[in-house]
What we know:
The chain is an alpha+beta fold. It has 2 helices and 2 strands, in the order H-H-E-E. It comes from Echinostoma caproni.
Amino acid sequence: MLLRQPAVTGGSGSTYIYGYFDREYKPNMKQEDCVNFVATGVSLAINRDGSSGGCVRLAIITSDGVERRLIKGSDVPTYTLNR
Length: 83
């Protein structure tokens, strides 16, 4: 069964970002806000999931075509707990 959803997350690291996704997703985000939302989510997943790779590859799909962006591994933010 398929369900229509405004946004979804999937993949091996998705279980690590459900809370982030639910809290930060906003309908009708501007394109750059959306790019930042996705890049941060993937970065958070990478920090917890060894199978999520070491870089962030984005494809921004619009009526004008596809724009691809790469955030190299050395530029992917890292997140640690400060306790």
